[in-house]
Amino acid sequence: MGYQWLKPTFVLVLGLNISVSFAADQHQGDIQPWKVGSQVFTNGDVFEADFGDLPGGAYRTDDPGFDADTALGAFGAGNWLRFQGLDSLKFWNGSSWSNTVLNGEHIEFEDVLGNVATFSTSGVTNAIGVIDQLDSAGDLHSHLDMSIRNAGNSLGGSVGAYWVTLQLFETAPDSLVPVSAASAPFSIIFNRGLASADFETAVSATLAAVPVPSAVWLFGSALFGLVSAGRRRLERVAA
User: Fold this and answer.
1) Closest CA to 16 of 184, 198, 196
2) Largest alpha-carbon pair distance within the chain?
3) Helix-strand-coil split of the chain, %, nearest 5
4) Taking the model in full, what pTM does it have?
5) Three-class DSSP category at 233
6) E strands within 127-215?
7) 1-5, 123-127, 161-165: least confidently modelled range
8) What is 85-129 written as a DSSP string?
């Protein structure tokens, strides 16, 4: 399915990359971030999820997980890996992606601290969350609880596929100040009750969808640069 990352060979591809991993020490289908220098990377552009998986029931899931790939580059020991929700929720209506849902559907991500980020067709509320704290080796493997809810905020959602966009960045504990440039944006496509073939059609259609604006791709780098510049100015004043 799509392009693949095969370790130990590092392959650079253009366009969208449907994530599949076969490394023995990594979990297939998980989002696998790593850091080189101050830049965060991920192992794919598009990841699949299913609200109909058995543990999550019809309207919940905790997959894909987040499984840092320290073989490619470790994060800072004790720091926090964070996500930021971008753009707005999109719905697959059977033939195309749109910003219109049938019954006020929205998707919630509960972070490790119990805070909830909400993706709706009008945008993302409480967009930044904590995935987990990195261990002494700069590694983590964590799963967040994700659910789909209707206009009444009850668990439930119309049959279809749902598309959210995120990026990852690293901070010190209890801080929103990045210590890394954010990853390029990536997408999670959720299946809610579609047959497998129909869901794969929706996933494939992301290739033809409008890409995330370039300004959003640069969010992490720009924010990191602003913080660094601010620190340099403070140091000059102090001197």
Assistant:
1) 184
2) 65
3) 15, 35, 50
4) 0.79
5) helix
6) 128-133, 141-142, 145-149, 160-171, 186-192
7) 1-5
8) EEEEEEEE-SSSEES--SS--EEEEE-TTS-EEEEETTEEES-EE
